[in-house]
Amino acid sequence: MALQSLSLQLYSVRHALDDDLPGTLARVAEIGYRQVEASHKLYARGPELARAVREHGFGVPTFTSPLVALPGREVPDVEEVFAAARELGATAVIDTYIPEEHWTSRADVATIAAGLNAAAEHGLRVGYHNHWWELERRFDGRTALEVLADDLRPEVVLEIDVYWVAVGGEDVLALLDRLGDRVRFLHLKDGPISRDNTQQLPAGRGKLPIDEIIATTPQVEAGAVEFDEYAGDIFEGIAASFDYLRPRTAA
């Protein structure tokens, strides 16, 4: 079984993007990536992102932005977010980071689910991306992430960061099996299973069972390479992940 498609989360090269967005996306294309996961924050800087996406023919299966308004959390105009996603050709808008302090109770989870469900009324699919705390936090013996999934509308999807699942103490394959078809996108990073972001490694060089993860998620539409940090040259890191995952990708 192979990934349906391979993408790069542009957060991985954010520092290079700050210095030279067109040049960075040119390097990403030279490595071989044909899809990227872009963000509203990056899009809102100006027309360079959309221009570079068109120039290099990138697909943008997923577009990220805060969607759920919570105390102390700024959310951009949701209509503008979805308009930007449509311009880039995205099929889903993913809320990628709801901080740990908003996951303290079952009521917190219900509030997050309600926000995601409301965002799903804007015409594109909506999704949520996990970190480790949604796995560490448990309610009635179940992870907060699974409790969230129960509260979501059927069309709201999950983008599972498999590394953070492992850091959160869960068996990655077992969790993916329990979540089933709700999982439509993956974030693929590797490493020693540590919260120290500088220890993250290219896919295939750490402790995650990448091949088994791919085999157990045939419904996944895109796997996105991501590094929160990288101790080496980030372009070498994303190239190493590409070289490992491309033979495991159908298109």
TrEMBL record:
Gene Ontology molecular function: any one: isomerase activity
SUPFAM superfamilies with a match to the protein in the record: Xylose isomerase-like
Keyword Isomerase: yes
This protein's UniProt keywords: Isomerase
Keyword Metal-binding: no
InterPro entries named in the record: IolE/XylAMocC-like (IPR050312), Xyl_isomerase-like_sf (IPR036237), Xyl_isomerase-like_TIM-brl (IPR013022)
Pfam families xrefs: AP_endonuc_2 (PF01261)
Domain Xylose isomerase-like TIM barrel: 25-215
Name of the protein this chain belongs to: Xylose isomerase
